[in-house]
Amino acid sequence: MRSHAFALALAVAWVGACAQPGPARAPAPEPRPPPAAEEPALRELEVTATAFTSHEAQTDAHPRLTASGERLRPGMRALAVSRDLERAGLTFGTEVQIEGHGEWVVLDRMAPRWRRKIDLYMGENEAAARRFGEREVTIRWETE
Q1: 15 has pLDDT over 60
Q2: Is the separation of the CB atoms in 132 and 79 below 8 Å?
């Protein structure tokens, strides 16, 4: 009987110990909000600008089809960029602010021989392209 009483007392003590709260736990940390999106950086560069039209003599056998797959239509504010500018972040779809000429979108790329050069699309208007000629312009675009 003594061994049963002892076993019972031991069981009660064990159950009591298990029921006691353990050391206080720190509350789970609050989830951190995602970091604020970084502001895109604004790049600025001086480049040579020319103009082109949808004539085969100025492009190729498919004068309205761009390297991006877009079809050019008169009135579009599209531009082609030299490949070094494409590598610098002026990829297809990039919006470019051309000082004194407004906003344009990169839809094409130029032949590999050109450096630091853009070519603005003038639709069918050869006279406007000739008037534009060749000039130095400052361009700005956002980078990620």
Answers
A1: no
A2: no
